[in-house]
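dumping this here before i forget
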Amino acid sequence: MVEPVETYRYDVEILHLLVSPGHAYFGRARDGAADVPTVDAEQAEVVAGKGIVGDRFFGKAAHMDAAVTLFAVESLEAIAAELGAGPFDPLLTRRNVVLRGAQLAPLLGQDFVLESGGSAVTLHAGRHAQPCAWMNEVLAPGAHAAMRGRGGIRCRAVSGGFLHRGPAVLVSPVPLDPAQAGVPSVLRPSRLP
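structure:
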């Protein structure tokens, strides 16, 4: 007999659902960001194994294991406070799902569920979403370094469904501490040679 897996449920809020068909941050920062359409959607469709419909990473082989990015807004608020700047627009981080009330780093290596608007989407947290140097340009000088260890997580879509802005529940197989949502996590060294 298989023992049931214990789960932990956390009330969170999906503040933003960024869907953008193009990359905005590439090339030299001094040349400015690309002018690409970006939608802060009320809902976003997630397709298992492919990501978010209409997003730049949807169905791209190189990004299948990291097609959906999650970010805790508390991290951005802590970074703004540390840099004496802000408040920052969470959409500038280019993360797909911006949450309030979720400690994300303990989810690395785990399958978890986001329930919202009557739908449930299962994601697998594969790795940290590392910030790029563009953060110094679009947020504030020093934001790139300040975001390390708290840039969110990159996930694979295990099941499809819809994510909706507003109240949600994060169902985790591991205990989380929402009070730690804005605290940097220790980055694990790479296992690659």
